Queue: 2 jobs
Job 1
Amino acid sequence: MLIRHAPDIKSSEITGFRLYLNRRSFLMGAAALALAPSRPAAAAPPTGQSLKATRHEAFAVPDPPTKFESVTTYNNFYEFGVNKDDPARLAHLLKPRPWTVQVDGHVARPKTYDIDELIRLFPLEERVYRLRCVEGWSMVIPWIGFPLASLIKRVEPTGKAGFVEFTTLLDPEQFPGQRKGLFGFSLDWPYVEGLRLDEALHPLTLLTVGMYGQVLPNQDGAPVRAVVPWKYGFKSAKSIVRIRVVSEQPKTAWEKAAPHEYGFYSNVNPTVDHPRWSQATERRIGEFRRRKTLMFNGYADQVASLYAGMDLRKYF
Ligand code: MTE
């Protein structure tokens, strides 16, 4: 992802500094990728509390899951820092209980749910999904969660509902990356993401509370995150405290930071390059070869109809 300049840097230096940081994070990313299978960047967390779920075969991809150790030590979670091992190193700072999720906006029954109430409300399913990061790496993860649609329907969207906005916790005590200037990089916190209402209601879109048979590790977005498998990973907001049904397209954190690089839709699309790199191929964590990136991350059969008639270069 794009790394922004610190506020005290002269405008003439911005491009170089950005390139430098991007190159640095790219190089570190590449090194971590190579090392991920045998030598993780940080210790994997102790096995978490187990979480029961019914496996949903209809949505499971046949690819073998990525090692739990890699999925929990090679993360993007800028609230903890810009390096891939910052989230695992600092994840203990996040307190996922007590936790509430406010569900409001254009809905007839707005409600603030305690996280454990939310988990009890809907049957938990296990679904093996691919996750493709915009940076060119991918993972295969057995998530545990329930369709976001179940929650959205429960609060009864009104006729004004057009989009769904997710907001991550804002708390610089728990998230050192939100402390101004700490890493010389800052998004406009809190992290905000969004989906069109029909995308949010799509049966593939999950609200996730666990992975690999256990509760979600903090670095993967505890206690609850979105998972939208046909979109680049950054659409899958972590540690969500608010889900708001809105009429206007939400302004997302990455769109605000770099609108020419990160569009609202961000569907995985090997034919539309990122302005600074190709999206044609990807590297599965734990593998060395590059594989071809699939349209909509391999979920075209299920989601292509959502975008019928849309120019996907314009709506990237
Ligand atoms: N959510 C928040 N709140 N903050 C983040 O920095 N990073 C995104 C997404 N969700 C991010 C986030 C990006 S860029 C990716 S690729 C995925 O989380 C990574 O998820 P993982 O670390 O569990 O693999």
Job 2
Amino acid sequence: MDKKTIIVTGGAGFIGSNFVYYMLDKYPNYRIACLDALTYAGNLSTLKKAMENPNFRFVKADIRDKDAVEQLFEEEHPDIVVNFAAESHVDRSIRDPKLFLETNILGPEVLMDACRKYGVKRYHQVSTDEVYGDLPLDRPDLFFTEKTPLHASSPYSASKASADLVVMAYHRTYGLPVTISRCSNNYGPYHFPEKLIPLMIINALNDKPLPVYGDGLNVRDWLYVEDHCKAIDMIIHADCVGEVYNVGGHNEKSNIEIVKLILKELGKPESLIEFVEDRKGHDRRYAIDPTKIREQLGWEPETKFENGIVKTIKWYLDHKDWWEEIISGDYKNYYEKMYGDK
Ligand code: NAD
Ligand code: TYD
């Protein structure tokens, strides 16, 4: 593959860091420049190994900071920009929507303006299946396709849906070469402890209650993070400007199933489960139809959930230092605020 330079924003977070490692490993002649503001969700320790690679560079900056973004483009002359940077947690968006609108909508605008100015050949927006809203539990025949209307429920998903509209507007209006991927829920290494799977693993390991929202029957469509990275890699290398791809592996599970599975794997009792007050506006079910990416790009998920979840649990057991440092800091206040009165 010809040498390329890719700017990866949000590369100190969960999926972005997995993507950085995936790309450095797969393309030894590529240069990867990561731009990340290191919010609560970004961890430099996550990128420790990448820092040792001479093809990798880290810059601490905000995607909304036009000067910092332009300086990086000036220095790196990127061929491709992949935008992972975002506020990503639905519960936080319910408490503080403004930050989500600012980061998730205005950030892509700054990045795309820089792409126009410097003639970048591809801007890829990492979006989410949550832009489609939710599906009813009693209609297992229904799935999200790329033609499903945007119908976001939470401030988080509304901000991501808005960004998608702006991205497509930049394509139509300015001819910016864009692509969008809308993936289902990811799991795997470096997943921040506030999200369902890591939160339940860590609480179970610490013999703390496992807070399940509502009746626990909400369904998510889980994909191992490396399979998402593979999909983005395929999209940014394909001749598919202006296209949107849904990414998901037909792996629907209710939250309570996931929680019970984690407890079983760790040999912990189900009495740790605590049903708590439901999330406001809680989406019932997400389910992706991945036909387009499979037929057009040949993407298939590789990791089966039964193996991926065991690998993930083992990763958390082997990387206690990574998450113990996180949960001993500001996260303690977050947990108290979010779960103290539930
Ligand atoms: P994350 O919260 O783990 O990481 C987000 C990263 O972005 C962090 O490193 C943070 O420091 C950085 N960031 C936040 N605001 C920034 C700003 N203003 N400027 C620069 N950097 C900033 O998120 P994630 O779970 O890795 O999600 C990455 C992307 O993938 C998001 O765009 C999200 O909407 C999307 N997505 C996530 C999932 C999922 O299951 N986690 C599924 C589909 C799509
Ligand atoms: P989450 O990991 O926040 O992802 P998303 O809301 O983006 O799908 O939550 C996944 C599911 O788990 C969602 O239905 C909410 C539920 N959930 C709980 O039941 N308890 C919790 O403590 C958390 C964080 C989530």
